[in-house]
Amino acid sequence: MTSSPAARRGPCALVALLALAAIGACGGDDHGAVDAGVSTDARPSPDAALVACSPDAGCDGEPLTPVCDLARSVCVECLSSSDCERGGSFGPGCEEGSGYCRCEDDGDCAGNANGPVCNDDTRACTCLLDIDCESDEECQLEPYLGIDVRTCRPR
């Protein structure tokens, strides 16, 4: 049985039609939708919940994020490196775009209350084991602004 030229074109025509439909779906009218664009929030974990603040209601109750970033109206760890000099900061340098205190290497974390190790991924001073902490402390997992770091905390 010999098929007609029209029958042989059927599968190819169907593939071509589907390809055109897919191309058309990529463009077209977006019904006025606004592109979200790139976030101005440079936090490593964009879903991290930051506490709101204002000039009247600062961040006194937020030990990990004690500084009010008035431009974003949220509590952050730092606005400048001088904010990272306090005990409990996660490093000596401030990444101003995100409001995080950061470390570059283990040397930055010597004597840090959170631990002596600079985490390569989070750039936060952390501990790995209980032995990294003082004798009356243990190394505990602490969710910090949406990233998990381990910190030395009292037993």
Description:
14% of the residues lie in helices and 21% in strands. A two-stranded antiparallel ribbon has the order 1-2. The protein has a two-stranded antiparallel sheet with strand order 3-4. It has a domain at 67-154. Mean pLDDT is 75; it is low at 12-43. It is globular, with a radius of gyration of 26 Å. It has 155 residues and is α+β, with helices and mostly antiparallel strands. β1 and β2 (74-76) form a beta hairpin. It has 1 helix and 8 strands, in the order αββββββββ. It has one helix at 5-26, and strands at residues 67-69, 74-76, 93-95, 100-102, 117-118, 125-126, 137-144, 147-154. The chain starts with a helix and ends with a strand.
Keywords summarizing the entry:
1 helix, about 15% helix, two-stranded antiparallel ribbon, about 160 residues, alpha+beta
